[in-house]
Specification:
The protein has eight helices and no strands. By secondary structure, it is mostly helical. α6 (119-128) packs parallel to α8 (156-177). The protein is globular. The two termini are 25 Å apart.
Amino acid sequence: LPMDLAINRQCGCGAPIRQCELWGDVVARFGVNAERDPYALNLGFLKPHVGDHAVTNPYAIARTRIAIGLKYYQLRYGLDFLRPWLEVNDEGVPHTLHIYDILREMTGKQVIVDSSKHYAKAVSLYRADPQHTRIILLVRDGRGVFYSALKRDFGRRFSLIFWYRHYVRALQLIRQHVPDSHV
């Protein structure tokens, strides 16, 4: 959502997202100025700075990978000494839960489906609100991932290992922190 607001991507309703009635109201209720600083929402583990290529420059990508790696090791092995380095990034969890509350209130819906694709965020959201959170882990066919990576000029070994590692890590965290009845 913050990146969509930053580049003013088209919403599913057809309007640019900053002009979308629903998301405009959500962002206003959250209390940020989406045009001035869309990343003030901070719904992920990082808070990129607004500017050209805020989330796609090499520095931001490296920072994201390091933060996700640290979050994985903190969750997987209980390395609480990492918490001070993740505090700023972890504010994305209560912010995300607050956005869900705003959406439920505005739409009258009881269920919100978040299509976020990172298992560390899913586990963090579950740990913060286990009574109201369930995880759906969609597993993409490894052949499709392999072929897609090959088309982007990644080597065969990397293409296969990338898919495999992702799901091994996801399953380790989910099994460790989420009961089977909630997955």
